[in-house]
Amino acid sequence: MLITTLHGPVSTPVFMPVGTAAAVKSLSRQDLEQVGAQIILANNYHLYLRPGSHNIKRLGGIHKFMNWPHPILTDSGGFQIQSLHPKITNEGAEFKSHIDGSTHFLTPETATQSQLDIGSDIIMAFDHSIPKNASYEYAKEAMSRTHLWLLRCIKTWKQHTSTLKLLHSPALYGIIQGGEFPDLLRESAKFVVAQDLPGIAIGGAVIGSNPRQTSETIAAVRDLLPKNLPLYAMGVGTRPSDLINVFKAGANMCDCVAPTRLARAGLLYNSESKNERIDISKSQFKLDQNPVDSQCDCTTCRDYTRAYLHHLFKSRELTYYRLASIHNLRFTFKTVSIFTQTQAV
Ligand SMILES: [Zn+2]
C-alpha cells in the first residue's frame, strides 16, 4: 500500500522511528535517511509544552523547524497524558506538565489545532487511551468518550481543511479503543470506520506491550476495517519479530521508541541471539572484534567492532548513542524490508 502525504508517499508496511520532541535522539536527518526512515513520529504533548505548537507554526512548521522534508505523523498526546494521572472529563483532560508542574487542559479541539499548527502530515485523534488491566466498565466509558472526542476532532480538522485545497490538507486518523474486550473493540472499529477518515489506528495498552495480545486485538477487528485504508498499530516494535507479527496480523504502520531507547541502554539487535539482542555492556565484548551483527549492512556494523562499542558505552562517549541508534534502526528497517520481500514472492 502506498500512503500519499503532503511530503511524499510512504510505502507500507512501515516502521516509524520516534522523534518525540522533533528529534530522533542522537540522529541527524542524514542518519535517518541513510538507515531508511520514510516517515517519523513526533509527539503533540511534548511539542505543545515545549517549544509550543504556536511557536513551531511561527517558525514555518515542523518540517522546516527540524529540517526533515519527509512525512511526519504526530501523536495527539492522549497516551502520554495518561501516565500523568490526568483528570479526564468529557470536556477534555487536565494534567500537570512534566517540565514545570504547570496545569494544562487539552481538549479534542485544542489537541487537533495544536497538531495542525505543528504542521504534521498525519494527525491523530485525541483519545482516552485505555490502560493495562482496565475493567470492562472503565474501558466502555473510555471508548465512548474516545468516540465523542473523535467527532469533535473531525469538526476542528474539517474547519481547517475546508480553508485549504485538499492537496494541502493533512490526514486525520481515528483511533480504535476497546481495551482487551472484543465486543468493545468491534463496536469502536465500526464507529471509527463509519467516520470515513483516511486512516485508522488501534491503540491503548493492549497494543505493543505483549506481541500475542497485540495480534489477537488486531484480529478481533481486522475484518471490519476497509482493506484500502492504512491500519496503524500504535507503539509496536520492541523486538524486531514484533514487527513481523503485527504486519502479519494485518497492520500496515507501527512506531516504537524501543530501537533507539534500547540502543542507548546498551541493548543492540542481533539476529543470532536468542532474545534478538546483545547487551554490549557485558565484559565478554571487551575484546570482541566482530561487528554487532554479522548480517547487518549499517555503517556501525561496517566500520566498528563490538569491542569499540563496548568501550564507548562504558566511557559514556556521546558517539556511542549515535552509532548504537543507527544500528538498531537499520536492523529494524531491514527486518521490515525482508518481510516485505517474502510477502511479494
Ligand atoms: Zn548494524
UniProtKB/TrEMBL annotation:
Domain tRNA-guanine(15) transglycosylase-like positions: 3-336
SUPFAM superfamilies: tRNA-guanine transglycosylase (SSF51713)
Alphabetized Pfam families for the sequence: TGT
GO MF annotation: an example: tRNA-guanosine(34) queuine transglycosylase activity
Signal sequence annotation: none
A cellular component annotation (GO) from this entry: cytosol
Keyword tRNA processing included in the entry's annotation: yes
Keyword set, alphabetical order: Glycosyltransferase, Transferase, tRNA processing
Domain of life per record: Bacteria
GO terms classed as biological process: tRNA queuosine(34) biosynthetic process
InterPro entries: ArchSynthase1/Queuine_TRR, TGT, TGT-like_sf, tRNA_ribo_trans-like
Name this protein carries in UniProt: tRNA-guanine(15) transglycosylase-like domain-containing protein
The organism's taxonomic lineage, starting at the top: Bacteria, Candidatus Amesiibacteriota
